[in-house]
Amino acid sequence: MHSTVNRKDFLRFLIPSAFGVFVFMFPIRDDGTFNIPLGLVTDFFLTILESTLPVIVVLTMVLSTALTFVTKLFKPSFIMSKESWRDMFDVSPLWLTTRLLGTIFAIMTLYEFGWDVIKSDVTGQTMLGLMSSLIVWFFVGSYLLPYLTNFGAMEFVGTLLRNVVRPLFTLPGRSAIDLLASWVGNVNVGVVVTREQYMRGFYTGREAATIATCFSAVSLPFCLVIAGMLELDYMFPVFYGTVCLAGVISAIIVPRIPPLSRIPDTYYTDTQYSEKIPQGESKVKWGVLKAVERAKAAGTLRDQLKEGTNIFTGIALVLIPQAMGIGTLALIIAEFTPVFQYISAPMVPLLELFRIPEAQAAAPATLVGFIDMFIPAVLGSGIESELTRFVVGALSLVQIIYMTEMGTLLLISKIPLNLWRLALIFIERTIISLPVIVLIAHLLF
């Protein structure tokens, strides 16, 4: 090992990094399925706070919307003088309207008054329940995230895997930890990891967009829930293996075609991270040196808590009201209008070409996942053909871009993705992964 790395510095990298990897990536058997420690901690808080979470969520939305209105009307110095606060509350009229709508929808849903189309079980109630879960995920994840990103784990693994990750996925080696954490953990926490790394200059805009849209897969427990809804849990290993295979194939192809390939390789900050290994230096030695260097700059426990608080408030006060507004409107369109029946009409002949039974019934389920990833399983559960249910379920888990959570989080992040890019990537992932899933389905049934 290099002479500049002493035992104390090495342990400062190793112990917090090992803790971060354990929390975000280590599989633990939990009640017949697998979870990660982050999920177990989140489930604990969800259980003890269950009855009060909807109220906490609504109060968060009210505070966010009130501060946004105050900022737009009066430009108070205590907000405008602080960049992070200014970014949160000095927003465009569109986002101001979205936050206001989200807050109104949440209040109507919580106190059960107003139009049924807003507060029904399939619209407002669904979104309020989702926001109650999300706020806890973000609270726990925000304070634990620094241990995964700030103490050298990404630098060490990135140095070792650079020659694999770059040619395969067109991404830097340090993203390997991000890719794995995004894949096995919670989808939204994965997006947050990527956003934070991009804003610090560790990824370019194209790299951050690629990771967020191609690797923020749904968690293993949720995959099991979907399999159970579609009565496919008896064959879960094959079902999940199909999702992983189709997901990896999509992740190899999608970054190489527009719109992702057209996003500039520019950094958000002037600080840029280089993975170049000096000539004559071994990968392991250089990886340890870079990791220790990163760990030294991580700061104190107080610094980690401050960073966690900044991450959480930035997400809770921005994402929660906007996701409630966009998600509720999207679910109203999906549940109470024939829009997706019309949009999905071209999918019918394609599914028939692939010899998928009940193609007419399955077609909407192949595209409605752009609104919310739960709806395809709801629509698919009424389909008789097991083969078709398999295709619908696996496809919905590979598509991964949905506006009720992840899509909104990406839109409000600094990552260069807009609604049209997200929609196009969603369609590309659908077209690329569908033949893979169909082929496996026909081999199984």
Uncertain stretches: none
How much strand content do the residues show?
A: under 5%
Q: How many whole angstroms does the radius of gyration measure? A: 22 Å
Helix content: over 70%
Could you characterize what this model shows?
This protein is an all-alpha fold and 445 residues long. Helix content is 71%, strand content 1%. It has helices at residues 7-25, 37-48, 53-74, 77-80, 83-89, 93-111, 116-119, 124-149, 153-169, 175-184, 187-199, 205-214, 220-229, 236-253, 283-296, 301-336, 339-343, 347-353, 359-367, 375-380, 386-399, 403-412, 419-444, and strands at residues 28-30, 33-35. The chain has a two-stranded antiparallel ribbon with strand order 1-2. The longest helix has 36 residues, at 301-336. The model has no long low-confidence stretch (mean pLDDT 89).
Summarize the structure.
The protein is mainly alpha-helical. It is built from 23 helices and two strands.
Using brief descriptors, characterize the structure shown:
about 450 residues
List the helices and strands and how they pair.
Blueprint: H1 7-25, E1 28-30, E2 33-35, H2 37-48, H3 53-74, H4 77-80, H5 83-89, H6 93-111, H7 116-119, H8 124-149, H9 153-169, H10 175-184, H11 187-199, H12 205-214, H13 220-229, H14 236-253, H15 283-296, H16 301-336, H17 339-343, H18 347-353, H19 359-367, H20 375-380, H21 386-399, H22 403-412, H23 419-444
Antiparallel strand pairs: 1-2
